[in-house]
């Protein structure tokens, strides 16, 4: 009987110790779970804040994409405009080059003709001046040798010579005017810049 009581007592003690241990384990678990719960609450708060940040990031990303899309459109339009301007410039340059090549030979012939005409005019003026000088010398010699008032025939001849002299003088003046006009036309055509100064010098040398 005594053994039985001791066994029961021992069994109860074991149960007590076991329950005590379980209770302590439970208390530790509760404490640990409380820490975990607190950490979970912190994590939830952090996740909520991150969710707000994430939504804001999504909005910012959407704005950035829209802005980039607009910039890309502007860049595409600028590139297209640049290509169009480049094509137009190439077309205009080609047309200008073709027009330049077409008119170059015509202008060359025109300048050559003007230079040649000027050369002949200058030569003719030189000859006319020499003739005028000769006639003037002859007239002065006649004046020294003869008194026109005493000889009617000579007087008439001198009148004819005066008339020829005036005609010759008028022709020389006309030639000079025409030569000046040709020079003005030549200088005006030089300003068209179809030829370089070297080309024009070559033309001059060819026509001299």
Quickly count the helices: 3
Helix percentage: over 70%
What gross morphology would you assign? rod-shaped
Mean pLDDT: 76
Low-confidence region ranges: none
Q: How large is the radius of gyration? A: 60 Å
Largest sheet: none
Q: Structural class, from helix and strand content?
A: mainly alpha
| Strand segment count | 0
Q: Name the beta content range.
A: under 5%
User: Between the first and last Cα atoms, what is the distance in angstroms?
Assistant: 161 Å
Helix and strand sequence = HHH
Structure description:
This is GAS8-like protein, putative. Residues 1-153 form the Growth arrest-specific protein domain. Keywords: Coiled coil. Residues 37-81 form a coiled coil. GO terms for molecular function: microtubule binding; small GTPase binding. This protein starts with a helix and ends with a helix. The chain contains three helices and no strands. Helix 1 (2-145) packs antiparallel against helix 2 (152-190). Among the domains are: 57-97; 111-208. 0% of the residues are buried. It is mainly alpha-helical. The longest helix has 144 residues, at 2-145. The chain has helices at residues 2-145, 152-190, 197-207.
